[in-house]
Specification:
Aminopeptidase, alpha+beta, 25% helix, globular, binds coenzyme A, single chain
C-alpha cells in the first residue's frame, strides 16, 4: 500500500482489467477491480444474498459481516491480491452483482479464491466469466496454483469447478469442505479463452 501527498493510504488499482458484456440482452454488466469506495454497495450485495448463497460463500456462516470486515473486503492490496466486481446500473445507481477475489499465500506462489454472484443473476455465465478472468490474472502474474475451499454440500460450485478443470481433494483441516485446486501456467488466459 502507498501513501499519497495527504498521508492517506492509497491502494494502487490496476486500470486494464475493466470490461463490459451483456449477460442478458440490453443489460450491460461491467467487470472491474473492486474499490474502497464500494464498501456500501458491497454491504448491500452481501446483505441481499439468500441464506443459501451466504451460507455457501461464508462457509457455513462462520464469518460475521461487520463494518470492519466490509472495509477489509474492499481494501485490496492489488500488488499481491485481486478482487473483481461485477456491477450494473439500476435507476442511475451502481449495484454490485458479483465479486471474485483471490488472496496470495504468504510464500507467494499460490492463491486462495472466493466467488459469489447475486442470486437473481446466477446461471447467466457471470461466475464463469469472472472466474476465467481471475484465473487469467493469477496465471499472468506467474502464480503456480489457485485453490479454494468449497462446502462439500455445494454441488453447484463443485460442478462449476469441475468444468473449469479444478482437481478435488479433502481439506486437511476440515472435512466438511472440499479443496479445489487448479494448476496454472504462466500466461494462461483462463480456461474458456485459450
Ligand atoms: C457458484 C456460483 C459462483 C456460480 O456462478 P454462476 O454465475 O451462477 O455460474 P454460471 O452461470 O457462470 O455457470 C457456470 C456453469 O455452472 C452451471 N450452472 C449454472 N447454474 C447452475 C445451477 N443452478 N445448477 C447447476 N449448474 C449450474 C452452468 O451450466 C455453467 O456451466 P456451462 O458453462 O457448462 O454452461 C454462484 O451460483 C454463486 O454465487 N453461488 C453462491 C455462492 C457460492 O456458492 N460461492 C462459492 C463459494 S466457494
Amino acid at each position: 500500500m502507498e501513501r499519497n501527498s495527504d498521508g492517506q493510504d492509497q491502494v494502487l488499482i490496476p486500470e486494464d482489467l475493466s470490461e463490459s458484456f451483456e449477460p442478458i440482452v440490453g443489460q450491460s454488466v461491467t467487470l472491474r477491480p473492486l474499490r474502497r469506495e464500494d464498501v456500501d454497495i458491497e454491504a448491500a450485495f452481501l446483505s441481499g444474498l439468500s441464506p443459501e448463497s451466504r451460507h455457501n460463500r461464508l462457509l457455513g456462516g462462520m464469518i460475521k459481516i461487520t463494518r470492519e470486515y466490509l472495509e477489509q473486503l474492499t481494501t485490496v492490496d492489488f500488488s499481491r491480491d485481486m478482487a473483481l466486481a461485477a456491477a450494473l446500473m439500476l435507476e442511475d445507481r451502481e449495484v454490485l452483482i458479483g465479486v471474485a477475489r483471490y488472496v496470495l499465500e504468504a510464500e507467494g506462489r499460490a492463491c486462495e479464491f472466493a466467488l459469489v454472484i447475486a442470486d437473481a443473476w446466477q446461471g447467466r455465465g457471470i461466475g464463469r466469466r469472472m472466474m476465467d478472468k481471475l484465473i487469467g490474472v493469477a496465471g499472468n502474474r506467474g502464480l503456480a496454483r489457485i485453490y479454494g475451499d468449497v462446502l462439500s454440500t455445494n454441488r453447484h460450485m463443485l460442478d462449476f469447478c469441475r468444468k473449469l478443470g479444478f482437481a478435488f481433494s479433502r481439506n486437511p483441516d476440515d472435512h466438511t469442505v472440499t479443496r479445489v485446486t487448479l494448476e496454472l501456467q504462466e500466461g494462461r488466459q483462463g480456461p474458456s479463452l485459450v
